[in-house]
Amino acid sequence: MSDVTTSPDPAGSRHDHLLDHAYDGIQEYDNPLPRWWVVLFWVTVAVAPLYILYFHFGPGLLSIERYDAAMIAFYDKQAEELLALGEVKESTLAGLMSDASMMNSGRKIFQSKCSPCHGMFAEGAIGPNLTDDHWLHGPQLMDVYRTVRQGVPEKGMLSWERQLRPAELLAVSSYVGSLLGSSPPNPKAPQGTLAARQPPADATPPAGTAAGGAAAPAAPVS
Amino acid sequence: MTVEVFSYDDAIVRKFTLVTLVWGVVGMLVGLLVALQLAAPALNFGVPWLSFGRLRPLHTNAVIFAFAGNAVFAGVYYSLQRLLKAPMFSKTLSAIHFWGWQAIIVAAAVTLPLGFTQGKEYAELEWPIDIAIALIWVVFAVNVFGTIARRRERHLYVSIWFYIATLITIAMLHIFNSLALPAGLFKSYSLYAGVQDAFMQWWYGHNAVGFLLTTPFLGLMYYFMPKAANRPVFSYRLSIVHFWTLVFMYIWAGPHHLHYTALPAWASTLGMLFSVMLWMPSWGGMLNGLLTLRGVWHKVAEDPVLKFFVVSVTFYGMSTFEGPLLSVRSVNLLSHYTDWTIAHVHSGALGWVGFLTFGMIYWLMPRLFSTELWSKKLAEAHFWVGTIGILLYIVAIYAAGLTQGLMWLAFDEDGYLKYGDFVETTLRLIPMYWVRVIGGTAYLAGVLMLAVNMFMTWRRRPATYQVPLHEAPPLAATYLPHPEPASALRTAGVHLADTGYRLERFFSSHWHRAWERRPVKLTVMVTVAVVSASLFEIIPTFLIKSNVPTISTVAPYTPLELTGRAIYLSEGCYNCHSQMVRPIRAETERYGEYSKPGEFVYDHPFQWGSRRIGPDLQRVGGKYPHLWHVRHMQDPRAITRGSIMPGYPWMLHAELDFAAIPRTMRTHRALGVPYSDADIAGAVEHATAQALGIAGEIATQGGPQGLERSQVVALIAYLQRLGTDITRPEPAVQPATPPVDPAGELSSVQVAEAR
Fold it and tell me: What SS3 state is found at A135?
């Protein structure tokens, strides 16, 4: 069986030149390299020095430089938002509740960062229920904002000041404030002391919004 | 002229063929189980040795080293003897090779589920097994080179060049990536740390694909394809050019697995550019395979062997186009850590490696068993079921990869992550995971058809095999080469400097004929190619200081954290979790600050991972309270609805081995981690205290009492430390008064603790 050699093209239409060797009957043609193969190979080789020149010694941006540019653009946008908000007061937080975009952001932050301990609907799990009228660290929006920022390390509540950006801290605090009285399923038993939230004393609420306080309705969030 | 009479040893080929099939079925069954676990995590059964993190390495090791490895050995032992007109050098070495390799596989199949691992992908096996692999590989090499030395065919055929490249390169990769310091019979820690370890691992990982799943299979293709088609190879010159370019360029491409990581940018650029250059050398193999079939395409319709070969080589062409594509940085940004990579490797593994192996086995069977194949129809059915299986598998998983990659990168109009919850991106994949299960089942069903066919064919074998005798003259002492063809340029009367004619000769490839009759020279040149290509990247990676800028606040792990890290390694957490935040806003928003090279200097081995089935963990430290981790390890779905992570409830009860800590620390000190004598002497005490602290907090937070001696506490200590060093204040301006040892120096553990 091994003495039989491979049979060349029976039609004989090819100009292939068969080399004068065989290994276990396997013969080889002396065909040239396909032209397109050679061209593509040299193109890929030629691209290499150009790429290095452009990205490592020229104007091309490498990953970290690109990242820095993206971050600066985003911070600029955020700084504008913050300047528009002014000093953070109870009324600032209450006002954000009517801003659908901020509430949307707040909900997303809550669901990704807070829900692992407080539950998807703030019903409480490892951490306390945030929808009832009992409070461990104060009922006011500014209390919530402070707790989110600084955390309560001895009880396992993290400080988010370094992890979230300023606008995100505001959005999530305000969102938590908006959940008061929202009666989620499977609520955790109340913890802390019963306390009613007082309406912001420092300013008139923005037009079109009900006065703050314990009765403030949750902003329509979908 | 004397003529020698000899015969070939086909018994060893029969053995290797049988185990190829057996281990193929085992490896694919484990693959099916882990695929099912991703779709239905309850199938981890809460049993430690059935959890995904331990079984996935078993799957990869079994299909790469047991299935593909034995297939290579079967094909090499069959073809080498015939191509050289010589029986194998030593039947004893063949037997040692066979039984040694099977023993290694059994050892892997036992130790991996038990959690004995070095924690580096495709190189998980612990040091005693690593040494056995190196020894058996040497036995194989001696057997092959011994056969070459006794050959009766003067020139080496292209298949053998590929076999030599495999022998040399796999030995080099395996030895240098596996260098580790033992800390006991079943545990060792990589000699390299962080960035350097990552570099070595992917130099190995990429080239294991190159030199265990590509070069030997190309060698097999060059033998079995022309044999099955009964046609000459398309182009001898193409085989020379693509062999040398492939062997030299493959080695450089490893860093394309580490784009956007803490690996220096120059290495990443080289990895990408060489991958792109590798495209045509790879396609040279595809062309020589497919174009060999010119004039006999009609045979493909009738012959299942050729069908398997055609689809195999087509998948080879597809994967080797996709490889360069994925290595382009901007594509990699989307594809990396997603299922796209999984689809890519499976189109290569199931298509190229699997189908080439099956075609080879169907071709070998009548020859090995001296009888007709039992059922050609069943072989045809195997081909179709297998092909449909591959298509279902890869289409579903390409879709999963693209879906998840795009979801991870998506921002909403306000500039926030659109899918901030990682699990949202997981849940979207579950239907595609089920399609993969169906595809994988079909593929496995095809392999079982092959098994039935082989068993039935074997039953029809003759009572005793006729061993045919062959005749050939020995190599003459002197050899008069054919004269090289005259220079076409000279003949045409073109006048050039001598260099011009030399270049013409170089590009004509005629000089290569002389190398083919000098195995030593050929082997040395292959070695020069792979070693020089390696050193061009390895030397700068290890010597240039600025590659890894030091971060002053990065300190060694505390004794308890180090123990937790050992649990993390042992459970194979890296199979699903990366520890590498890329500098992309979509990742820093999700995970936190991007990873810096200096953060990993004490990580023996690195744990950057390659696939995010779950979220990145580099910045998980301090993100959740201890109790969150306890509850999450107990039952991930109680914390995250829809999570597909297996539960690790036993970790709450499994006792931590405090007594082993000093030894682990001494091993790390020998590797260069600056633990002082005092650190090691006080290690158990320190670990006990830290464990008590964590267990106390868990109890205060309302969790279970008395966890201070459980494994979960060590794991939590490690997780809470992850990625926190860079945000720790400088030790010099530390406000708290850290304990100071008598010498007035802060010991490293105390520094670590003073955060």
Answer: strand
Give the domain B559-730 fold: Cytochrome Bc1 Complex; Chain D, domain 2 (1.10.760)
* DSSP string computed for B359-401: HHHHHHHHHHHTS--S-HHHHHHHHHHHHHHHHHHHHHHHHHH
Residue pLDDT, tens place only, B668-710: 999 999 999 999 999 999 999 999 999 999 998 889 999 999 9
User: Which among A41, A57, A73 is the end of a domain?
Assistant: A57
The answer to whether ipTM exceeds 0.85 is yes
Helical segments of B412-517, H only: 422-427, 430-459, 488-491, 498-508, 512-516
CA distance A116 to chain B (A): 6
Burial B629-655 (b: 16+ CB within 10 A, else e): bbbbbbebeebbeebbbbbbebbbeee
Closest residue to A37, CB basis, from B287, B584, B588: B287
Residue B326 burial (CB count, 10 A): 21
Global pTM reads 0.87
Position B732 confidence tier, pLDDT thresholds 50, 70, 90: low
Same domain, A51 and A95: no
Using the Cα atoms of residue B731, residue B736, residue B738 and residue B742 in order, give the sign of their dihedral. positive
Question: For residue A70, is it within any domain?
Answer: yes
Contacts of A48 in chain B (CB under 8 A): 273-274, 276-277
Token pair recorded at residue B182? 């033992």
- The 3-state DSSP class for residue B233 equals strand
> Do residues A71 and A172 share a domain?
yes
Chain A residues inside the 8 Å CB shell of B701: 126, 155-156
Of the listed ranges A72-81, B117-126, B176-185, B713-722, the one predicted with least confidence: A72-81
Q: What angle do CA B189, B594, B584 make, to 5 degrees?
A: 125
Which residues are bridge partners to B180 per DSSP?
Answer: B190
